[in-house]
Sequence to fold (263 residues):
Amino acid sequence: MTDQAADELRERVRSRYAGAARAILEPGAGQNGCCDPLAGSCCGPDAQTGEAVEFSASLYRPGETDGLPEDAVLASLGCGNPLAVADLRDGERVLDLGSGGGIDVLRSARRVGPAGFAWGVDMTDDMLELARANAAKADAHNVEFLKGQIEAVPLPDASVDVVISNCVINLSVDKPAVLAEMFRVLAPGGRIGISDIVAEDQMSPADRAAAGSYVGCIAGALSRAEYLDGLASAGFADAAVTFTHQAAPGMHSAVIRAAKPTT
Fold:
């Protein structure tokens, strides 16, 4: 992919998610062709392709979103529940890649308690505005939302214990860079708990493109083998990719686990 093509694709993703944030920040303002989280989600049924994918806050367990601002729940555009596999503990430092409206950052902050901390990184100004407003409504003091790209995380080396992400890595135009950044910011012994769209190994890039759009979270998905190889190349150990439910023929929502070695 050329730099120009990567920039154009990144802008398409940013524009679509900005539209989702504006739908909540400015109800009735219109979507200008972007997704509407009140009727579905960005990574949901695509107006052009008709992709029938399950993406929303309904994927959380009963009670897990209780007490969170309604706008944070409405802006949930993920394909899974990364906290269900991240096993967060009191006092840990957590980073959410592509944090959107902030639902998983706020949930993480509650889980790690006052002694812990949760960061969110997002490249979309509108989503950052929404996330910060949600944090204020939730009176969450152990959170911070940073502007940046998940291929270049604005945090120092070995600064977090856990990295989570909810259906965002498939949208990246440079996935090896994302995996390398996760490894870099994790402290030795740290771990990842990620929800993402993953292709079956027999699905070629052309097959994935035929199954759905890039901004619809289908065409840009890695295969299971590519994910495992990429994690190993980045330095991770004990990696596993587990399919949870079908997103499109040959494509699945999945949970991804791996750990950074202690040495």
User: Anything to note?
Assistant: The chain has one domain: 3-259. Strands lie at 93-97, 117-122, 143-147, 160-166, 186-199, 222-223, 237-248, 251-259. The chain has eight helices and eight strands. Residues 3-259 form a domain with the Rossmann fold fold (CATH 3.40.50.150).
